[in-house]
Amino acid sequence: MTRSYQIVGHYSADFNLLFTKCLEVIEICGFALQESNILTGYIVAKTQVSWKSFGEIIEIEINHNGGVKVKSVCIVPTTLIAYGKNQENVERIFAKLDASF
Question: Alpha-carbon distance 42 to 52, whole Å?
């Protein structure tokens, strides 16, 4: 699998609620929050090192129309294979987010 993966989802929820839910999901997933800015709808988190990779950076962008873009990228830019870890991260976030509504 590739060293990055992203999906865009859409929700019929208020921007502030969606932003809050995304922050909660980051915590539920056990990712470390690195940055969040409610004015821009941008959240950055980091995963832990695993046998599959040296960790990933998770970027979440939320817009005022209910759009949520989640991207997972390997921390080490020279990573060639991530054993599906990026896809797993993104799908896990959306599964938890879907379950929270």
Answer: 26
CA gap 90, 71 in Å, rounded: 7
Q: What is the pTM of this model?
A: 0.92
Which of 31, 28, 97 shows the shortest CA–CA distance to 59? 31
Is the separation of the CB atoms in 57 and 75 below 8 Å?
A: yes
Q: Could you tell me the CA-to-CA distances from 12 to 71, 93, 98 in Å, in that order?
A: 21, 17, 11
Q: What's the distance, CA 101 to chain centroid? A: 17
pLDDT category of residue 83 using cuts at 50, 70 and 90: confident
Residues 10, 63: Cα–Cα separation, whole Å: 10
- The residue whose two tokens read 């980091």 is 46
Measured between alpha carbons, how far is 53 from 83 in angstroms, rounded to an integer? 8
